[in-house]
Fold this sequence. Notes:
Largest sheet: 6 strands, parallel
Strand content: 5-15%
Radius of gyration: 19 Å
Helix content: 25-40%
Strand order of the largest sheet: 5-6-7-8-9-10
Shape: globular
CATH class: Alpha Beta
Order of helices and strands: HHEHEEHEEHHEHHHEHEEHEH
Number of domains: 1
Mean pLDDT: 91
CATH topology: TIM Barrel
Amino acid sequence: MSPFPARADQVGSLLRPAALKQARLDREAGRIDAAGLRAIEDRCIAAAVEKQQQLGLSAVTDGEYRRRWWHFDFLERLDGVERTYGEKVIEFHGVKTKSDNIKITGRIGVTKVPMLDDFEHLKRVARVTPKYTIPGPPVLHFRGGRELISKKVYPDLEDFFADTTEAYKKIVRAFYAAGCRYLQLDDTVWAYLCSDAERAASRARGDDPDSLPATYAAMINEVLAVRPADMVITTHCCRGNFRSSWISTGGYEPVAETLLAGIDYDGYFLEYDSDRAGGFEPLRFLPKGRKKVVLGLVTSKTGELESRDLLERRIEEATKYARLEQLCLSPQCGFASTEEGNLLSEDEQWRKLELVVATAADVWGDA
């Protein structure tokens, strides 16, 4: 069984340090140029990587420090994708985001693979395994659905799905060639498909949420089929994460069999920090063998530290439905899916990750 996902793992994003936030303001004001901003990003990433290594994490990320959003910054660099502003805000539970979005105005393709240079910097500064996170293929469709995909370019959505699949196959091959052996495809879509409200919104955009799981699974499996044997690809599912708020509610039951048994991911980071995620029963669909589920029991939405006893009891509860050797532990999401970040301090963030490492060592002994 692969060492990844690790017994003590993390989703990806980290709170942006004050120096980085100031550098972005300076760049917008013209006080520094793009090279100056990147140099500050480099230093902040190196410091974050060192902190993760000191905590004992065996896979480290760049905190998504170069991004404003977990998904848009990557997707807008694909051929055929246009970033939009001012058209529609996204409504979280009591919080509204900026009015960024994307739409499909041309054929999906990859002239230059996004963020490869960002991964290569992470690889240079990491002493342990560098983990890189990108949005999964379904995100490109589900965010806007049929209404934001040009009917002139794609009169038949099957062609859109085929082009997206080919683009991601190229992306996976390129990350592997650059030395990436641990790639994560972040994908809120699966949790949204468990929400009655989000399913209704999907229908309103012109899609059929009943058929989407099979469509998405076929896309992802075709992409995963190109990964070499020594490359681990995982996914992360959550119900939205913006300034400690969320969008959807509902347990994984409606999609669990397709997601856990029908898609060939190596691991699944599943949100389990609140009642919004439902119970552990859907884990019964996890096939025995190499796959792992990373239980997101430590919330990234508040600074209050969970008790180790509570975490261990919840892991034990999960073993009613999946074998302990196929389980791991992490925060339920990143700490900053957007540059604004969640409502906790950096010290609280690091204590959360330290708790994950310590609890995993108690439970599995090999974290």
